[in-house]
Amino acid sequence: MLRIGFVPGVSPDKWFHRWADRHPEQPLESFLLSVEEQRTALLEDDADFCFVRLPIDKTGLHLIPLYSETAVVVAPKDHEITVFEELELKDLADENLLSTSGGTEAALDLVQAGVGLLILPQSLARHHNRKELRYRPVLDAPGSSVGLAWLTEREDPEIEEFIGVVRGRTANSSRQEPTPAKAQKSAKAKPSPAKNVPKNAAKKPAAAQRHKRSGRPGKRR
């Protein structure tokens, strides 16, 4: 059974459903983990795959980038920025921007207390949605990316099959592309077209061929 971790804000449901449709006899074990745990879970063999939030130390890992998302600023519901539909970083120049170094929930507690504002990936803001808070897109803030990570040493068929599911490979598609050597061999086996032969060249009538062999000219009309 494949064990798959995912960080808050990431929704891997579409890949899980695709796997279940294709392999109903092989259920997945999935669990939520923090961004701080995403790399450790792989290195300590607590997970076979992790849907991770980038950046991540890729030493010893394979990584497939999946998608990027917009950054948003989170503020108390009565804050003046909530009158805007979207913002730029210059609009937040006078604000106290907090970090998530002590954890996302702790940072949101400070936002709710009026200590400052917090910039988060949009999906993470939705995941930690609170009725006392609001968020707005920040158009020029660095976006956040999500990817699928696993250990480089893992190459067994079940691992390869899940990678194919995430990449969108169909059940009937081949897992392996032909090697360069096979491709060259196949190319050599194909007959090359005749050179310097006009495309519209037609065969001479059989009667003309007989006249040519006998040395007698054909009849004039």
TrEMBL record:
GO cellular component: protein-DNA complex
GO molecular function term, any single one: DNA-binding transcription factor activity
Compositionally biased tracts (Basic residues): 209-221
UniProt keyword terms in alphabetical order: DNA-binding, Transcription, Transcription regulation
Keyword Transferase attributed: no
Annotated LysR substrate-binding domain residues: 2-100, 103-169
Organism lineage string: Bacteria, Bacillati, Actinomycetota, Actinomycetes, Micrococcales
UniProt feature, compositional bias: Low complexity: 180-208
Region annotation (Disordered) ranges: 165-221
Membership in a protein family: Belongs to the LysR transcriptional regulatory family.
Pfam families found in the cross-reference section: LysR_substrate (PF03466)
SUPFAM superfamilies noted in UniProt: Periplasmic binding protein-like II
Protein name: DNA-binding transcriptional LysR family regulator
Keyword Transcription regulation: yes
